[in-house]
Amino acid sequence: MSPMRIIILLVAAIAAAGAAFLVRNMAPEPAPVAPVETGEQPAPITITEVIEVPQTPVLVLTQDVPVGRLLSAVDFEWKEWPDATLNVNYYTQDIFPTAIEDLSGSVVRTAMVQNEPVLPSKIVQKGETGYMAALLTPGMRAVSVEISVDNASGGFILPGDRVDVMITYDLIMGKDEFGEEIVRPTTTTIMENVRILAIDQIFSDDTAGQFAIGSTATVELYPDQARLLVLADRLGKVTMALRSIQDAVEGGPTLARTDFLLNVGPFQEGVGQQKGAVRVFRQGGVSLEAPEES
What we know:
Blueprint: H1 3-26, E1 55-61, E2 76-82, H2 99-103, E3 107-108, E4 123-124, H3 131-135, E5 141-146, E6 162-175, E7 181-199, E8 216-221, H4 223-235, E9 237-242, E10 254-255, E11 278-282, E12 285-289
Parallel strand pairs: 6-12
Antiparallel strand pairs: 1-2, 3-4, 5-8, 6-7, 6-9, 7-8, 7-10, 11-12
């Protein structure tokens, strides 16, 4: 090979190497890759699609309510409810905007739980048939007696209050030396912690005034106690003494005395009863006499 060809090949090789060097320097550097720890995979990218569900405010309960509970405004609230599960019997805010005010004072017919939509079939509204029956505790009876300002704590007794029931009657002690009957007025507490259901047609203590003057009080009693009160009302003057909130307790009333009503008993067998004695009712009075020997 001639020296001239060797020189041409060397120049071509040097030119090719220079071109390759220039191209390498002009290319951008690759982005650094973050190291991945062993055993862990990068979290997948999730795309969440938000779907709006049509909802309507529905009247629900704020707490569990038992049968016979007298409902007030604090027992109700409006809560968004999916339109897909709406019941035609629900109270919706657009159709019944005053439902909370209208249903306050209703009585629970069927027990309900918190956040449950209110249904007309589960409550009894004022004026509806069965309102008083729904207000009664199971096993109890409603009995009405005549009252006035002087025998019902001046009109300050309201529905929901607890009272003690007293009777004032003439107790015949015997006869004096002239054969005249000796009469002593006596007052006895016959029942304690009696629940007032209504004063006339007022079933709630949510009244505009601070007292309610009525002519009839309806109380909640056990069946035997109901008989006792009816007879006591016939026997003498019945008076109701208002109990304080601290003294009022849940549950049925208790009997304080039944010994003067032996002919009705036995309400509390053996309590205050004199063996062999006969209770005699005479012109509104009561006397305890020994039985005649045969």
